[in-house]
Amino acid sequence: MTLSRLSLAQFRSWRHLTLDLDARPLAIFGANGSGKTNILEAMSMLSPGRGLRGAGAGEQARQGVDTGWRVRATLGEHQLETVAPPGQGRGVIIDDKPAPQTALGRMLRIIWLVPAMDRLWSDPPEVRRRFLDRVTLSLIPDHAETALTYDKAMRERNRLLRDQASDPGWYRALEGQMAESGAALTCNRLAAIARVMAAQRDAETSFPAATLNLLPGEGFADDADPASIADRMARIRPRDLAAGRSLTGPHRADLGAHWGPQDMPAALSSTGEQKALLLSLMLANARALADQPVVLLLDEVAAHLDADRRAALYDEIAALPAQTLLTGTGPELFQAFGSRARRLMIAKTGGQSSAEEV
User: Fold this and answer.
1) pTM of the model
2) CA-CA 20 to 30 A from 157: which of 127, 164, 271, 321?
3) Could you read off the pLDDT of 57-87 as tens digits, one per residue?
4) pLDDT of the residue at 222
5) Residue 352 maps to which CATH number?
6) How many domains does the chain have?
7) DSSP-H helix ranges across 213-349
């Protein structure tokens, strides 16, 4: 089951756009600022969360227009729609019925790689944690609800800590919830890491395979035992009271990566090697979802690849069981696809984007 149509209205620089899609990669090219990435962002809004730019619904409406925005897609016999009326948050409609965002993640898996992610291995741990959770969500859709349960209990516990509340019963109840959902979060993350690594091992690929691990740091974030988590939170409660927040748990997790015969840490690798590792993880993530509808969004992915590595990437994309949308500044970047990909030229005039298939 694949997406056969994407339409958007009043989204970013697009007044309106309708694309008929098929299984072939779609290479989108045009000048910087023409609206290429806006198409990928619109597609990313068909998944749970805030999309590939992490923007709020109000930021995504076309400037000067107060009618809100809409993104709609056809997936097999289903209609997926996400809408943001003026001044309101984003809603989801599936087959003409309101639905939670998490329902999107059960129907369609969307994976993306954008230039800002090139800094993944040098960014703070919370950036890698969000990356890991996006990968985990694609593989285990219930991960989103588990994270929400944990975050809600932690916010309540943090409120008690800030208020210097002393009733141990309140803490025990919240710590029990955090322990159960926190252990599930950790199990999900470990399972996702294992599946991605297995997909790397089983693939014929030109990109380096990484050994991934969940780094506990100071937060014991690799603990998957609810009883152990609850006991530890009770023991360190005085320290948390002094800090006014929860200092340990899966919300402090980090993702580690090593590669090559010398077990090189990703953070110490060259810029090109780090990019290759990211691409390897994206491709493995897509392969691990071979039995699900998958869309892979690659923004300016060819910008820092030499011709040989670019051709190798396109060979692997063409063989993937996933629909892929790529962006770049010019058609020459996609020459190695040959006839295997469709091409869409984007232009922008008067603040409005337009598209033409070439």
Assistant:
1) 0.92
2) 127
3) 889 988 766 779 999 999 999 999 999 998 8
4) 83
5) 3.40.50.300
6) 2
7) 226-235, 237-243, 271-287, 307-319
